[in-house]
Each structure stands twice: as C-alpha cells, then as structure tokens.
Amino acid sequence: MSSSSEVDTGMVLALADDALVASHRLSEWIARAPSIEEDVALANIALDLLGQARLLYALIGDEDELAYRRPAGAFRNAVMLERPNGDFGATIARLLLLAAHQHALYSSLAAADGDLGAIAAKAVKEVSYHRDHARAWTVRLGDGTEESHRRMQDGLDAEWAVWGELAPTQEAVDWATAVITQATLRVPGPVLAVERQEHTADLDELLSTMREVTAVHPGATW
Amino acid sequence: MSTFEALIAAQDRVEPRDEMPGDYRATLVRQIAQHAHSEIIGMQPEGDWITRAPSLRRKAILLAKVQDEAGHGLYLYAAAETLGVDRDDLLEALHTGRQKYSSIFNYPSLTWADVAAIGWLVDGAAIVNQVPLGRCSYGPYARAMVRICKEESFHQRQGFESLLTMSRGTPAQHAMAQDAVDRWWWPSLMMFGPPDAESPHSARSTAWGIKRFSNDTLRQRFVDLAVPQAEALGLTLPDPDLRWDEERGSWDFGTIDFTELREVVSGNGPCNEVRIGRRVAAHEDGAWVREAAAAYAAKQGTRGAA
Asked: Are B186 and B256 in contact (CB under 8 A)?
C-alpha cells in the first residue's frame, strides 16, 4: 500500500475533482434525458465518475471532508467541467473530450504500482465505456439530421475551445479528431494546453447545491 | 375448456403466443403500463436529491437506485410490448393523461429525509404489492416482477438504514426523519388501492390469476410489517388508532381518507402537473436526439444495402 506522502496530492485532487464535478453535472440529466435508455446510461457514467472520485479522495484524506467542507477555491477541477449543462449535444461533446483525456491519463497511471495504479486500472475499464458511449452519440448526432449536426458542432466548438485546460495528450487529441471526422463534423482547431483556470461562480453554485443539506446540519453524520 | 382457461385453472403461465381473451390482454396492458410509468415518474422525487445528497456514499446509493428505477421501467415496457403494444404509444398515453402512474409520486419530496422515507415506506409497500405479482399468470410480467423485487428490497433496506441513521443523529435530523414519516405514512397505505368493497376490477383480476391477494389483505400485511420497524427506528407512525389486536394477530389502524386518494388520482395532487410537465419536457427536448438516432440508423441501413 502506498502512503499519502508518496502520491502527488495535487494531481490526485485534480483527477478526483474533475470526476466529482463531471458526475454532478451528468446527474442533473437524470429524469431529463432524451430517452429512458439514456437516463440509465448517464446515471451509470455519473456513478462511475463518483466512484473514481471517492477512491481518489480516500488516497489523500476523508472523502466527505474533501467534497463537502473544502472551499471552492481549493478545488482543482477544470473550469470546463463546472459549467452548467447545455443541450444533449453539448453534454456529449464534453463527455467525449473528458473521456478521451481520462482514458489516456488513467492508461498511463495504470502501469504504476500501488493504490493509484489499481484505481487507474479500474477506471480505464469504466472510461472505455464512457468513450464508446460518447463516440456513438457524437457519430449519430453528427451524421443524423441537419439539426443534430448543427447542435453537435456547436457543442463541440464550445467544449473544444476550453479542452486545453485538461491538457489532453496527443493520443487523446488524435482519438477525438478521428471520431469527429467520422461524425462528419469539423475539427475546431488546434488544442492549446493552458494552466487550470480560476473557478467561476458556476462552481460556487454547484457546491452550494451539493452542500444544501450538510450546510444546515453541521456536525451530523449520514 | 379453452387453452387459456386450462392454463389459468392449472395455475400455469400464459405466454405471449398463447391465445388470451381481449379483456385479459387489455387489463394487463393497463396494469403493466401503469407500473412502468410509475417507475419512470418515480425517478423524479428522489432524483431531485442526487445532487444534494449529504455524503458521497449516500449519493452513490441514490444514483444507483434511480438508475435501477429507469431499468425497471425499461423491463416493464418490454413486458407490455409482448402484448402487442408499442412503448412510444404507452409514453404518449402517459403524457396525455390517458394512462396513470402511482399517485404516491404526486406528493412532494421536501427534505433529504423524504428520500429515506420513500425507500422505507414506498418501496416497502411496493414490495408487498409486487411479490405476489411474481406468481401472476402472465409469464413476462411475473418474470419482470421477480427481478424487480430483488432490487426493490435492497432499496427498502437502504431507506430504512438511512432513516435509522437520521433518527439516531442530531435532534434536527431526528425531527426531519419524523416529519418525513408523518407525511409519507398515509399516502403509502393508499398505494394498495381502494378498499375491497370499492375495488371494481379485483374479482376479475383474481379469477385470471393476475391478482393473488385483495387490496385490504396486502395493506394489512404492510401495516403489520411496518409497525415493528417504526419502533426499531425510534419513530412514531401518525395514527392514534394503531393498536395490536390479539385476536386477529394484526395491527388495527385508523380510517384512511380515500377522498384524498381520489383527488390525487384525478389529477389534483400537489405535484401532478409538475411530474407530467417535467416528463413531457424531457420527451420534447429530446425529440431532436431521437430523430437523429433514427436518421443515422436509416442511413446506415441504406449504406449497408448499397
């Protein structure tokens, strides 16, 4: 077992926060998805991401302390993941780019020994499914109707513009590019890796929703 | 004796290809569709609390539960489709109010404790109602029910355990748990339907082997299970007339206000409009997605043929 001193706390927090925040936004789709099958699929993906966040938090501290009692400013998630949901096309675009990034990252981490390697190895399997799901929808929407093509392109343009904050590897960019091409969509342009950005009021809103119950019951256990 | 009558008399299963009376088929379509719709609408009152769950463990349990409900809806629509109806038509009937869903979901989920109370009482009542349906005469429905009941009993235990944690927690948590039980108790008893004397279709459903026990029998079974559980929870049930009847070996309970049930069934419950409004909005907002999927599939078919 690796101790917390051996893991890169900042990296683990960033991975966990990305997963938690993305899970929160996906779970907002439940009972609002375009089909019941999609309610099941999005709930399943949200649950996988939540599970990843929990395992990662447990490596460095108490999961509820980290999720419920840490100031928003201490969150390391990418700003693209805290933004409110747009339409289903935007959600699929975000999932496509997140899953492409996570798949490459977890695949490389899975080679490592210790707890983080084990968590990453489990996550790769889950994220492979997320990638497949996002790819299938990107292709259907891109090569579906005129309206779905337009919406999928709009969603992709908006998410791609901020994808650099996740610092996707070349492998992730190549994979996403191939999917976008297959979907008869336009690849928006080069991905420029940038530093993680300052959080916005969207994260404050997300965390105040998440903490609505705990805020009025300080010190309670659940 | 027809094949159908022989199957019913022998307590065998009727399967989709067997001949069956039109009324039997229609009764099952109505009942299975109502059941499927209840699963789908039932995602809303709890689903609203996923983003607000007070611990990550509770959040994961609730997400999994709501996902199960969507899955139950899918199996049940599939069971209804074996009777020659189409899911899209059933959803249309839900959206336009031609088919009903369980009235319990027309009550609001006001606090986090409601999620636990729904698990304990609403899922508990559903299990009492549904376990006998695992032996109902129509094969696809019976098999769907066996599978669903296994998952429901897990949900019920989770609800009980969450409520117990709150009941033993801070005074504010205990009060929240008690308030939720106070509001969900009577609506849960109404889930068993009108009293036997006023249940018009019961006799025929019983003769057909769809219904195995009467509404009042199942309601009593539920009360007898719930009273000791409430005691274990350290919570009270909001009925001053609850008392043990030594002779019957059952709990006596107060008079249920069925006027309220009729109001809620006929669309005047606290949340009828919200629930259907949200369901219809999800369906309409998703129309372009479903159209795209159909258009893509059609293109693939053409490409495959070319």
From this structure: yes
Q: Pick the range with the lowest mean pLDDT from A14-23, A52-61, B267-276.
A: B267-276
pTM of the model: 0.95
Coil, strand or helix at B251:
strand
The backbone torsions φ and ψ at residue A214, rounded to the nearest 5 degrees and listed phi first, read -65, -30
Which positions in chain A touch B70 (Cβ < 8 Å)?
Answer: 30, 36, 39-40, 43
The answer to whether A163 and A137 have CB atoms below 8 angstroms apart is no
Residue of B nearest to A42 (CA): B67
CA distances from B199 to B32, B193, B303 (A): 18, 8, 55
Instruction: Measure B187 CA to nearest chain A CA, in Å.
Output: 23
Q: What is the pLDDT confidence band of residue A88, given thresholds at 50, 70 and 90?
A: very high
CATH number of the domain at A72, please.
Answer: 1.20.1260.10
Cβ pair A87:B51 closer than 8 A: no
Contacts A63 to B, Cβ<8 Å: 56
Among B67, B172, B296, select the one facing A47 at the smallest CB separation.
Answer: B67
Asked whether residue A141 is domain-assigned, the answer is yes
Q: List the single residue in B53, B71, B278 with the smallest CB-CB distance to A40.
A: B71
Six-digit token string for B284? 């309409």
A88 lies in which domain range? 4-210
Q: What is the pLDDT of residue B264?
A: 85
Q: Does B60 touch chain A (CB under 8 A)?
A: yes
Does A79 map to a domain? yes
Report H helices in chain A.
Answer: 9-27, 36-60, 63-68, 79-82, 88-109, 114-142, 146-163, 170-182, 201-210, 212-216
Interface check for B166 against chain A (CB to CB < 8 A): the answer is: yes
Please name the helix (run of DSSP H) or strand (run of DSSP E) that holds residue B252, with its range, or none.
Answer: strand B250-252
B290 CB neighbour count, 10 Å cutoff: 16
